[in-house]
Amino acid sequence: MREGGGGGEGGRRRRRREGGWMVAPRGTGEGGEEEDGDPAAGPGLRFFTWEEIGQRNGGGPPPQERWLVIERKVYDISHFYRRHPGGARLLESHAGQDATDAFVAFHVDKVLVSKYLKSLQIGELAPDQPSIEPTKNKMLVKDFRELRATVEKMGLLKPNQLFFFLHLAHILLLDTAAWLILFYFGTSLVPFIVSLVVLTISQVQASWLQHDLGHLSVFRKTKWNHLLHKFVMCHLLGASAKWWTLLHSQHHAKPNCFQKDPDIDMHPFLFTLGKKLSVELGIKKKKYMPYNHQHKYFFITLPPLLIPTYFQCHTFYIAYTKRYWVDLAWMLTFYIRFFFTYGALLEIKSLLAYFFIFRMLESSWFVWVSQMNHIPMDIYYDKNLDWASTQLQATCNVEQSLFNDWFTGHLNFQIEHHLFPTMPRHNYWKVAPLVKSLCAKHGIEYQSL
After folding, report:
1. Measured between alpha carbons, how far is residue 194 from residues 132, 181, 182, 303, 422 in Å?
2. Over the stretch 124-150, which tens digit does the pLDDT of each residue have?
3. How far lies 8's CA from each of 13, 29, 74, 155, in Å?
4. Beta bridge partner(s), residue 44
5. pTM of whole model > 0.85?
């Protein structure tokens, strides 16, 4: 660790603050004499090496400090990470690392967020330290940041609100049509099935829209994204918006990184994922399930049961334990609306069957779309790669077509979505050629099914 601001070690007073070392606000005059520092200038700067920062990753014995770097500035998040709006695990996953590109990717209003960072800053990288971590591809980082600047200049991060309005309109029409089918044509088998299919389509399309809102890509102002997110996620789908943000942000930060991406928490207790992790289990001689048959029991477990069992319980559990009372109130309006409107048309057994079947259909659709872009890719521990490499090795695309775009909510452009998580989905196809060029330049395979 090195200190800045002039004089030697003897002319400094240090004090312990928030889990990291801070230099007291004193400076050194031109003649070498100590003088009081300007209070407005804040504490004297401390300089750090990447090695020192890497050691503050939350591991080891107490106090288990957690530091990270954003644009060469070093921040102590040891106490703040639990209060982070995006969840503790999201910040924790970058402890001891450079989080510059992740910070830029996730935050729409960077000026506002930067104000809150000031109180966490404890220093900067030493002048002789490279701006890019040694574990990261320097040229790829540089080219990706240039691509990001090009994307912003092209206006590809600006939403077309007519697109999203029409999308919401077709969701509400389908939602209404599902009930009207039973109301006008009765509850016999054919209307029952048709209504189920229509409601399933409405629910899945609503889940794609809430995904857009959760990524702050529908409105330019964050508060409007949050407000409509609660309406769509909580009222139309019956799940917690904050619960989704908590888990999904972790997934985007470190996709397919074991113990950091909650989307692969099914390993090893239900399935074994990734060649390297599977070999590791074999060496340890651990076996929780008959993995040699997992390709068979996958079809009757994860796709149909993820939403009606695990998600259904987990969203309420998180919302209650974390006291998301507003989300819980919104969620209750979904169940009141559903059981009141459909309960007037269906008997209790038919009503429960209707609810569970459409949840199973919705779950199957969701799982196949969300998992086909990640499960075939590399799954292992976090290797602290640069942002672009981390996303590219964990994602693949699916062929573009109007149907595929609609069916997947444009998540057939998973690569572009992960590189630019706040980009409105209707612009993915525009940035795809630029991403392909970046991959070709650096010899990275642009995976597409």
Report:
1. 56, 8, 9, 21, 35
2. 999 999 999 999 999 999 999 999 999
3. 11, 12, 22, 49
4. 23
5. yes
